[in-house]
Design brief:
By secondary structure, the chain is of the alpha+beta class. The chain has helices at 23-35, 49-62, 84-91; strands at residues 4-6, 14-18, 39-43, 70-73, 77-80. It has a five-stranded mixed sheet, sandwiched between helices. It is globular, with a radius of gyration of 12 Å. The chain starts with a strand and ends with a helix.
Length: 93
C-alpha cells in the first residue's frame, strides 16, 4: 500500500488511516500538523483493489468497527475517531 509521509517531530511510528472526503479525518490530519508530528497516512478511497483488502485488514486489527479516522501509534495503541484530547495527550509536546 502506498503511504504518504508528513515530516515533523518523531513521536513514534504514527500511521493514520483516513478517507479524503471525511471531515473528521481532515481535522485529525490538521491536528497532527499543528502538533508538528511526523506521521504516515493512507487515504483508503484512493487505494487500488489489491491494497484495499490489506488496508481493511490492518484497520480491523485495531478498530473492528472499521470507522475512520483510525490512528495507530507504534503498532501498539490506537485512537479511533477525531479525539483531540487523546491525540494531544499521546503526541503533544
Amino acid at each position: 500500500m502506498k503511504k504518504e509521509h508528513v515530516q515533523g517531530n518523531k513521536k513514534g511510528d504514527v500511521m493514520l488511516f483516513a478517507l479524503s472526503t471525511c471531515v473528521w479525518c481532515r481535522k485529525t490530519k490538521q491536528l497532527l500538523a499543528d502538533l508538528g508530528v511526523d506521521y504516515r497516512y493512507v487515504f483508503i478511497d484512493f487505494a487500488d483493489k489489491a491494497d484495499l483488502a490489506e488496508i481493511e485488514k490492518e484497520i480491523e486489527k485495531w478498530n473492528p468497527s472499521g470507522s475512520l479516522p483510525t490512528l495507530v501509534i507504534d503498532n501498539k495503541e490506537c485512537i479511533v475517531g477525531y479525539n483531540p484530547d487523546a491525540i494531544k495527550e499521546r503526541l503533544g509536546t
